[in-house]
User: Fold this.
Amino acid sequence: MAQYALIVGGLGGSPSQTEAIRSHLHDTYTAFVEDFRFPLDNVTVLAEHAIEKEPFVAGISTAEAVRAHFEVLSRKVGPDNRIFVVLFGHGSYDGTRAHFNIPRRDLSDLDWAALVDSVRPARVIFINTTSASAPFIDALSAPNRIVITATRTGTQRNQTVFPRFLVEALRSPAADMDKSGSPSVREAFYFAALRTAESFDTAGHLATEHALLDDNGDGVGHRLEDLKEAGDGNLAAMTHFWQPTRVVVGASLLPDKSAIERDIATLMERKETLAKDAYYEQLERLFVALARLNDRIESGQR
Assistant:
């Protein structure tokens, strides 16, 4: 299963914010390449002019450059691939549309949705860490897609602290709660959202941001404490940033693995509509099938 990552830094607006974005981009790039073992050619970083000369930056983060990258992805990515998109910087909201602030013309939530729709991978993980990012969930939500935002509304416009803790989650062993070798997307969200809330509590300040996650395609994101009851987070729990290299040997089985994972996520969302015995019987059957398939993949069978 090939995995790709696009990491985009927007306009900083001040030297200190530009440096913070540069640091987030560098650490996230390093996590994908070194910790999660993505091939160098599969990780692209775009940033504003003040950062473009950094060796890990591929180009300036204009709308034209972002679109060009998605055109490349649309030719390379197949139905057994995954794409991670991570945005760092500032966002804005005009009462109707949310925007990610980049050099020259900004891209709106609908612009990003159209770009993501232009490629057809098995799964998209889209993380917008900026202020006013919540409307991105409504715009990008779809089956087999995980969308995370730093805020719960478009009107939460203060500079966010969520990105700092998200980057920490990508590189901290503490975020890998099940000790699988890398955090799942849900574990990274849990770690970052919890640390964000704790930072406001420690400072004695009213929280000005509340991160959301949507992964059941209904266009409604939920906060950390509401995930289980709402039915969100199941797909994110089964999606890890790192896939062991040995699974490449059994690559022909990966579409089957993705299908079973989707079935498990769908079943978990329907738990309240099923009889208890029927629910657990179906869940056990799917988990047994997934375990057997994982054994075949890890042993190199096809």
